[in-house]
C-alpha cells in the first residue's frame, strides 16, 4: 500500500485536468478540452481525417500564453508522419501559400495564437498510413520555455467533407 499510494496520487494529478472532459465524453477519445504545460494552455486541438494516400495532414489548436514572458512553439513530432512542421499562410505575390516557420511560432506573453485551417497550423509531412475520423493522433509539442508535452488530437471529418457539415472546422 505504501508503494501504491504515490503512484495513485501521481495518476490523479495527471488525470485531473482531463476529468471534466472525460465525464462529459466518456465514450469518445480521451482528448481533454484544454491541457496546460508551464504557462502554455492548449485548447481545442484537432486534426482531420485524410483521404487514402494523402501525403500530409494538419493539426490545429489554440495556444494561450498565460505567463509574462514570450514563448515559442519550436517543434512538433508525431508517430503518424516522418516529420512535423509548423506552418504559416502568407501571400506570395497575389497567391496565398503556406510555408514553414523555421524559427517556430511565437506565442506572445498574455496572448492567444490560433492554429486553424487557412492560418497557422501544424503540418505532418510524409504520412505513415492515413488518419480516420475518430482517431486520436498523438502529437508531441515542444515549447522553448514551457517544455514538451504529448497530446492527442481527435480526428474530425476530412477537409473535403467539412463544408457539407456546416461546422466551423
Ligand atoms: Cu502546411
From TrEMBL:
Domain of life of the organism encoding this protein: Bacteria
Statement: the UniProt record of this protein carries the keyword Signal: yes
Region forming the signal peptide: 1-23
Annotated InterPro entries: LpqE-like (IPR007410), Lxx211020-like (IPR058248), PCuAC_sf (IPR036182)
Protein name: Copper chaperone PCu(A)C
Keywords, in A-Z order: Signal
